[in-house]
Amino acid sequence: MSTSAAESTKPAFQRILLKLSGEALMGAQSYGIDTQVAESVAREIKAIYDLGIEIAIVVGGGNIFRGVSKSAGNMDRGSADYIGMLATVMNGVVLQDALERIEVPTRVMSAIDIPELAEPFIRRRAMRHLEKNRVVIFAAGTGNPYFTTDSAAALRALEIKAEVIFKATKVDGIYTEDPFINPNATRFETISYQEVLEKQLKVMDSSAISLCMDNKLPIMVFNMKESGNIIKAVKGDLTIGTLVGGNG
Predict the structure, then answer these.
(1) This prediction's pTM
(2) pLDDT for 28
(3) Interatomic CA distance for residues 43 and 103, integer angstroms
(4) How far apart (Å, rounded) are the C-alpha atoms in residues 43 and 125?
(5) Domains and CATH numbers, the chain
(6) 62-88 in b/e burial notation, b at 16+ Cβ within 10 A?
């Protein structure tokens, strides 16, 4: 293999945090978990695991319950958010099972103490798991209400010294407008944190974007439903999505 060919297959990142929405595990259903979809997601993750990438995952709970959703009704926001955190634990355990079925060692770490299901989140232990080539799934958000799983993803990525956040969505990057509403919307290949905030683009919530901006942590937004995209993402292929960071 030539040097240039070898370089083209070399990952651009060694330690990543993958942010998955709960809806990513829902499939074509309107609610809940599709185990076949979970298995498909697990195979995509295994593809980069086999490259030697250290992988942490934050999974949302929107497929089951979201604190700010209509299903929360008039519930107290704090109580509703805690229920949402429990939903992320459920998704985390499902994803762990799917990964371990294909021989990817995985640990679920929860910000809420549920020892029968998950280890408590301890930063040094999480980093040790990564160093031992175990996939780590962070569940229960930050453990605090009023914070989204986007904020949890930014926080955990910084705590474990991840090099990038991969935000897996249903579209291939960030657009000037919603591409499902306006087919003429154009995709950004790169964009600054400040532009995301000023244009109020729905990438991650403003708290998460601000945290990444303050700490210069890049965010790669791409469509994980396209098979093979996550491998392209870890190799730094900007054609599959949008990179948030720098001056845009």
Answers:
(1) 0.91
(2) 80
(3) 10
(4) 25
(5) 12-244 (3.40.1160.10)
(6) bbbbbbeeeebeeeeeeebbbbbbbbb
